[in-house]
C-alpha cells in the first residue's frame, strides 16, 4: 500500500513539474548591417493560458565581457526600457504579450552592439524554465563568403547531377544502338542463309524429249 502511495505521489509531482515549466524560444544567431535595425524575437511555450501577469526580461552581454546587464523588462502590462545603458533611445518593444511575443527592436546597430542577448519569460504559474540566448553579429556589408561557398556547393552538386543524367542517357542510347545493329545483322544473316538454302534445295526438272 505504501509503495502504491509513493508511486502515486511521484507521478503527481512529475505532472506538476511539467505543468509549471515554461520553454523560451529565440533565434540562435542574428546578422545585421551597420546603421540598420534588427528585430530580436522571443516567444515561449506554456501549458497555461497566457496570464495577465506575463513578464519578459532581456539582458545583454557584450563580446568579451563576463557580466550581462538588464536592458528591458515587461511587467504589469507595461514595458520598461533602460535609458542609461548602451541601447538608450535605440531599443523599442515590438512584441505582443497576449500572443506570447516579447520581441524587441534594436535601432541603428553598430559594431559595439555585437554580443549575446538573453530573453527570459514567465507566465504564472508557469515560472520554471531556462532563458534563451541569441547572438548578434553586426557587419559593415553583407557577408558574402558563406553565400558564395553555399552557392558553389549547390552549383557543383547540380553540375554532377546533370552530368550523371547525361551519361546515363548517353549509355542507354549507345546500348540501344548496339542492340539494334546486332539485331539487324542477325536478321541479315538469317535472310541470306534462307536464300542460299532455297537455291540449293530447288529441284532440277528433267528434260524430256518427245519424238514424233
From TrEMBL:
Q: Which GO terms describe its cellular component?
A: plasma membrane
Residue numbers spanned by region Disordered: 186-205
How does it sit in the bilayer? Single-pass type I membrane protein
Provide the Ig-like domain boundaries. 35-137
List where the protein spans the membrane.
146-171
Q: Does the keyword Signal apply?
A: yes
PROSITE patterns given for it? IG_LIKE
Protein's UniProt name: Myelin protein zero
Q: What is the lineage of its organism?
A: Eukaryota, Metazoa, Chordata, Craniata, Vertebrata
Amino acid at each position: 500500500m505504501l509503495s502504491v502511495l509513493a508511486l502515486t505521489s511521484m507521478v503527481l509531482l512529475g505532472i506538476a513539474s511539467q505543468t509549471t515549466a515554461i520553454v523560451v524560444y529565440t533565434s540562435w544567431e542574428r546578422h545585421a548591417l551597420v546603421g540598420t535595425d534588427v528585430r530580436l524575437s522571443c516567444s515561449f511555450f506554456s501549458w497555461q493560458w497566457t496570464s495577465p501577469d506575463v513578464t519578459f526580461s532581456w539582458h545583454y552581454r557584450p563580446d568579451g565581457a563576463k557580466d550581462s546587464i538588464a536592458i528591458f523588462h515587461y511587467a504589469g502590462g507595461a514595458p520598461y526600457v533602460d535609458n542609461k545603458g548602451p541601447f538608450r533611445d535605440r531599443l523599442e518593444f515590438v512584441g505582443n504579450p497576449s500572443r506570447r511575443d516579447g520581441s524587441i527592436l534594436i535601432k541603428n546597430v553598430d559594431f559595439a552592439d555585437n554580443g549575446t542577448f538573453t530573453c527570459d519569460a514567465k507566465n504564472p504559474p508557469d515560472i520554471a524554465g531556462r532563458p534563451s540566448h541569441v547572438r548578434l553579429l553586426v557587419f559593415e556589408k553583407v557577408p558574402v563568403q558563406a553565400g558564395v561557398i553555399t552557392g558553389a556547393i549547390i552549383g557543383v552538386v547540380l553540375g554532377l547531377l546533370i552530368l550523371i543524367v547525361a551519361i546515363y542517357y548517353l549509355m542507354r542510347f549507345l546500348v540501344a544502338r548496339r542492340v539494334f545493329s546486332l539485331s539487324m545483322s542477325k536478321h541479315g544473316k538469317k535472310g541470306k542463309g534462307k536464300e542460299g538454302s532455297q537455291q540449293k534445295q530447288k529441284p532440277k526438272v528433267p528434260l524430256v524429249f518427245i519424238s514424233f
